Description:
Elements: H1 2-8, E1 15-20, E2 23-27, H2 28-38, E3 43-45, E4 53-59, H3 63-72, E5 77-82, E6 95-101, E7 120-125, E8 130-136, E9 141-147, H4 149-159, E10 163-167, H5 171-178, E11 184-187, H6 194-205, H7 219-234, E12 247-248, E13 256-257, H8 259-264, H9 278-282, H10 288-299, H11 305-320, H12 322-333, H13 338-347, H14 352-374, H15 378-386, H16 391-400, H17 421-431, H18 433-448, E14 454-458, E15 462-468, E16 480-484, E17 488-492, H19 494-526, H20 529-555, E18 561-563, E19 568-573, H21 578-581, E20 591-595, E21 602-606, H22 613-629, E22 637-641, E23 645-649, H23 662-676, E24 681-686, H24 694-710, E25 716-720, H25 729-732, E26 736-745, E27 750-758, H26 766-772, H27 777-793, H28 800-808, H29 827-833, H30 841-856
Parallel strand pairs: 1-5, 7-10, 9-12, 10-11, 13-23, 18-22, 21-25, 21-26, 23-24, 24-25
Antiparallel strand pairs: 1-2, 2-4, 3-4, 5-6, 7-8, 8-9, 14-15, 15-17, 16-17, 19-20, 19-22, 26-27
Helix pairs in contact: 6-7, 10-20, 11-20, 12-14, 12-20, 13-14, 13-20, 14-15, 14-16, 16-19, 17-19, 26-27
Amino acid sequence: MKQYNGIKSKYPDAxxxxxxxxxxxxxxxxxxxxxxxxxxTLTKRGNGSESETALAGFPHHSLNTYLPKLVKSGLRVAIxxxxxxxxxxxxxVKRGVTELVTPGVALNDEVLQxxxxxxxxxxxxxxxxxxxxxxxxxxxxxxxxxGDVSYIDKLLQNFSPSEVLVEKKNKLFFTENFGxxxxxxxxxxxxxxxxxxNESLLKHFDVNSLKGYGIEGLDQGIIASGAVLYYLxxxxxxxxxxxTSIQRVHENEYVWMDRFTIRNxxxxxxxxxxxxxxxxxxxxxHSPMGARLLKRWMALPLKETSQIxxxxxxxxxxxxxxxxxxxxxxxxxQISDIERLIxxxxxxxINPREVVYLKQSLDAILPIKNAxxxxxxxxxxxxxxxxxxxxxxRETIAKTLVEDAPVSIHKGNAIAGGISTELDELRTIxxxxxxxxxxxxQREIERTGIPSLKIAFxxxxxxxxxxxxxxKDKVPEEWIRKQTLVNAERYITEELKEYESKILGAEEKxxxxxxxxxxELIQFLIDYIQPIQLNANLIAQLDCLCGFATLAINNSYVRxxxxxxxxxxxKNGRHPVIEKQLTFGEEYIAxxxxxxxxxxxxxxxxxxxxxxxxxxxxxxxxxxxLAQIGSYVPAQQARIGVVDKIFTRVGASDNISMGESTFxxxxxxTASILNNVSERSLILLDExxxxxxxxxxxxxxxxxxxxxxxxxxxxxxxxxxxYHELNDMSKTFTRIxxxxxxxxxxxxxxxFLRKLTAGGSExxxxxxxxxxxxxxxxxxxxxxxxxQQLENSHGLQNNKAKLxxxxxxxxxxxxFFQLDDPLLEDIKDEILATDINTLTPVEALMKLNEIxxxxxxx
Length: 858
């Protein structure tokens, strides 16, 4: 316990798994937590004494079962192993922490998810900007960036790190800006120093300058990256040869989507349980590397037209060359996760069977390489030439390891024959044992006349001869008796002991020699880290593009035309997720969308609730997104002028935990849009202003639409609303066009046609939706009555007689005022007729705006 306490004091914030014999034990508070997380028995050591302490443990061979559960629950786990053979010491066995496993630093297959990266992130708060770094130790990917809070927030959302490192002094800043949704670990402030970070990176990459990585001058990003490397050394991860480069995430190279947009479009995660994400629909990849890269492509859509077109051309080639498409698909299925396998080589965690998988994967790459080199697509041809055949490596593995090598080198028989003369000789000695023993048994039977004599082995006294009691009088004098049983006796002989030492010595030597030869093979493999990482990246790209071809073939997607215009023209566009959820035989109602900065900049979409306004908004963004990651799109035809930012304000969502109402969240998100808009932006606004009173809501929605129309960027906008008053905007603002999602009205029924048609909508059919939802009949009846009364009074702002009459009608409780009164004659009458005492501040501003328009005619 003294030894345990000494080691535990060095790792106070980690759960210490302390190896005792064949078990990993935990003590005290660790044991209580361990038993709770793993659902194992909690016992006590020194029960009833002063030194009584809680105890919980599990067999050492079950580490791979229990470790993932501890790490996934957010714990940091220090693995303390015996550092010497207990047989070789008479005192207490030396022990020490050999690995510290945390949510962001894990190499265990059970902790990792094959289709997702496991990023460790670090955030540094500079004076002006923030720096961020992401490292996946299981793949060797190392990324860095710097920017303002919203940019770092977006990256954290996209990369979903399992753990985030932060300076202790910035604990509060981090929580204020990014919430508490991450597992965080706080490091001493001195770790986040420019000189220390630079030195760490230069030393790791063994270079004199960071220029070659394109991150020189990225001061905050470098500091964050240095903190990541420091943390790896602190967690006993020193074998990092697979981290061969660091890459900058350039903000201006990719489409900007803030975290609200990523969440609203449900790209790869959703707040709604059982929701189907876009990723789950479009992911047709066959390799873990491809699946991880696809997620990266979705997080960082391209803005460079030529790069997008290159991807489309490869997808087109796959679709038009079935043999190449089929061969590539088949071969990719044969490829293991070579990106993570080569990382295991570097960290010394790979086993013989995985090395064989690596070799088989490299074999499977050859046909792809050959076919790509022969293609007449320049991108594919280049990729084929870049793929490494690794001939010597494949030959070496084939010569060194047997085809069905075991999972553990300690199980033996992993090394092939013919590699080592010494190993072959030792195996001959070991394997000839059965034949030798058979001969010995036969010889002794003939010499002693004991027909039932047999030779066996146990761990207590090795090989022995067993003789039944009926024949014990025939036992020769030189045999030494070792054990007496009920019906038999066991003996040993000089010859048997000599043979035993020879055999057991051979087996021990075989084990050591196999481990040595395997270690030499791993050292040889280390030289191939970069070629294999390059192969992994190229195969991932081919896998994604091949998956896009599969997606297009199976779902009738078309190749979009990508250009540098600022227009979006989609014919019969469909929502990629919703169309897959329709019942059999039901057809998705496709819609056209045309947006440009000259005639149709803002489309004002009105229509009933449940009619499909939100679906039209989302599908437009998803079609643009798919087009710019290199995929075909769900439409009959699509022309996309490259978009540089996608903004959405879709659906209501409270952030009560942060003290924000639905309306506050809505205004925050909308403010973010208005402050960052550009001429290539695509903006989707759904039901803006519904979180507050009707007049406030209409006023804010009107002002936002007007702002976007008058803004120099003239950003393309889809604006869905149930405020029909906004249809009046098209009379004044030339680039605002009214559309509605059509319905068919029958006697007591409304059929949603889900078709977008020109012109505004007059009704919202909210009461009809309430009826569909099963609202009690008296409520529906009362609502219809109220609606009729309100409609009769609507537009009678200055007609006092009618208004008084309306308010005296039975059950009348509300009166709505029309914002734009067509009966006004002139400014004087307008001012005199306005009851200032009853105006809200927002109505006063709107009234002032009306007077200004009457004066200027604009």
